[in-house]
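Schema walk-through. Below, the input block comes first and the output block second. Nothing else is stored per chain. Lengths vary across the set, and this one has 73 residues.
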Amino acid sequence: MELEDNPSNRYLEHVIEMLMEKYPSLSRGEATKHVVKSSFFETLKEDKEFVFHYHPTYWVDIVSSESRILIYT
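--- output ---
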């Protein structure tokens, strides 16, 4: 899936990449699934300026804590 090149999508891709770095056993598809199910993704859609005020590592931690399955990867 090719995303349009805009700041929100670049930020989203960065969070997905960082999540895969934190959990090397995670595939891109699995990482994307966890991100899309997270409050980060909803917040990005509703208030991207709020999201942009935080470093992507903050959001990786949010996604990780919301996706308990990641604890076991």
